[in-house]
UniProtKB/TrEMBL annotation, chains A, B:
InterPro entries: ArsR-like_HTH (IPR011991), AsnC-type_HTH_dom (IPR000485), Dimeric_a/b-barrel (IPR011008), Tscrpt_reg_AsnC-like (IPR019888), Tscrpt_reg_AsnC/Lrp_C (IPR019887), WH-like_DNA-bd_sf (IPR036388), WH_DNA-bd_sf (IPR036390). Gene3D superfamilies: 3.30.70.920, Winged helix-like DNA-binding domain superfamily/Winged helix DNA-binding domain. It comes from the Bacteria. One of its GO terms (molecular function) is sequence-specific DNA binding. Keywords: DNA-binding, Transcription, Transcription regulation. One of its GO terms (cellular component) is cytosol. The keyword Transcription regulation applies. GO terms for biological process: regulation of DNA-templated transcription; response to amino acid. This is AsnC family transcriptional regulator. Residues 5-80 form the HTH asnC-type domain.
DNA sequence: ATTTTTTCCGAATTTTATTCGGAAATATCA
DNA sequence: TGATATTTCCGAATAAAATTCGGAAAAAAT
């Protein structure tokens, strides 16, 4: 299936990125098209996996997740074991992101916990159980100034 | 207004985090409640800013955003100017996240661009224009193994 | 130039959202 | 504790939206 996106698709993505719960009817009004035509496009964007999913952004503080940290993780062995290490990291629910990075550190991981104590727990209980982790370097976030999931949608 | 969340609220958050476009009717069926009652709760969660927004996760590759990088940015002056620097960074659309971090580096920034060349452009054109940036250290992501926005919703 | 495919429309139908009065359950407090 | 206030929920009515589908129009392919 073709993955090329025209201007209308980009408009849809822009509007839905800003508000995933916009009604199809409103979307159609914005685009000055029939609801049925817009719906067809949205379904196609979902099929093509251009749209990955619709998520709700929850205020972490409201559910007692006050601490955000980034952890650089160095793997002790070669490239082959990295994939395995990555999978193990990805399974930990508090870990939101796992990136395989260039350079001497193997992974950069984003993690959210209630507080410093529970981060410590996580590192002791979950991280230390993963084989081949040589070292970790943790960076604590004091304040998040910007946090958007939005991508920059090209104009055309 | 009270911000305490009961079990039903947490269930709603869990379901909506997984799929922001779930219909209120389906939500009500899952919770075995009347749609009107569920709607009332959702509205309240929005009012209380427990729910921040509903977003659509777009496959970055589909819109030619193939490069992901993290940049550590050191500010040359004291704490007071940091706020200003943060604001300037936050205005750059390609920068998705700006975190004020503990330690000698002042900020950790997450940035998405089309490719290495456009990241270079960004650094030359946008970053270098910001006063008081002493140094930057860029980490390129080779592969993203996990990328979730979901928080861990407590059971009770 | 013809055929095929895609995109769109509009109308019909099903489903959902929204509103609201009032009952039931909870919480507050004197 | 007992009375009062507040919150939560339901159910029914109505307004709005989603979904389906046949077929016209536009675009692309041959």
């Amino acid at each position: 299936m073709d993955i090329s996106l025209d201007h209308t698709d980009l408009q849809i993505l822009e509007l839905m990125q800003t508000n995933a719960r916009i009604s199809n009817a409103d979307l159609a009004r914005e685009l000055e098209m029939a609801p049925s035509a817009v719906l067809e496009r949205v379904k196609k964007l979902e099929q093509k996996k251009v749209i990955r999913r619709y998520t709700t952004s929850i205020n972490p503080a409201a559910i007692q997740q006050k601490l955000l940290a980034f952890i650089f993780i160095r793997s002790s062995e070669g490239f082959s074991c990295c994939t395995n290490t990555a999978q193990l990291l990805a399974q930990i629910p508090e870990i939101q992101e796992v990136h395989h990075i260039a350079g001497e550190d193997c992974f950069l991981v984003k993690v959210r916990t209630a507080d410093a104590a529970s981060l410590m727990d996580l590192m002791r209980n979950s991280l230390q159980k993963i084989p081949n982790i040589a070292s970790t370097k943790t960076t604590i976030v004091l304040e998040t100034v910007k946090e958007q999931q939005e991508l920059v949608i090209p104009k055309k």
